[in-house]
Amino acid sequence: MGDHRGSSADSRYHQDDVNNGFVPVDKVTGRVFAIIWPFNHLGLVPSQNPIK
Questions:
Q1: Residue 35 near residue 43, CB atoms below 8 Å
Q2: 11: left (phi over 0), alpha (psi -120 to 50) or beta
Q3: Dist CA 45 CA 15 (whole Å)
Q4: Is the pLDDT of residue 1 over 50?
Q5: Mean pLDDT of the 10-27 span
Q6: Of the four listed, 14, 40, 41, 47, which is most buried by Cβ atoms within 10 Å?
Q7: How does pLDDT run across 22-44, given as a tens digit for each residue?
């Protein structure tokens, strides 16, 4: 989203783009493995195959 959320655009802003606001899988360079904020959602994220 960017450092200045008031001036940044998330995927909802890019719905008319070629990828409809999504990042192509071949452009992903890492994966999330944990949630640390908010604290009530603290935990590990299970690994999943994104191509299904």
A1: yes
A2: alpha
A3: 26
A4: no
A5: 82
A6: 14
A7: 888 888 888 889 999 999 999 99
The residue whose two tokens read 């890492």 is: 30
d(CA 9, CA 1): 6
Tell me how far apart the alpha carbons of residues 34 and 20 are, in angstroms, rounded to a whole number. 26
**Residue given tokens 């191509």 in the structure block:** 51
Q: What is the pLDDT of residue 2?
A: 52
* Cβ neighbours for 33, distance < 8 A, ≥ 6 positions apart: 44, 45, 47
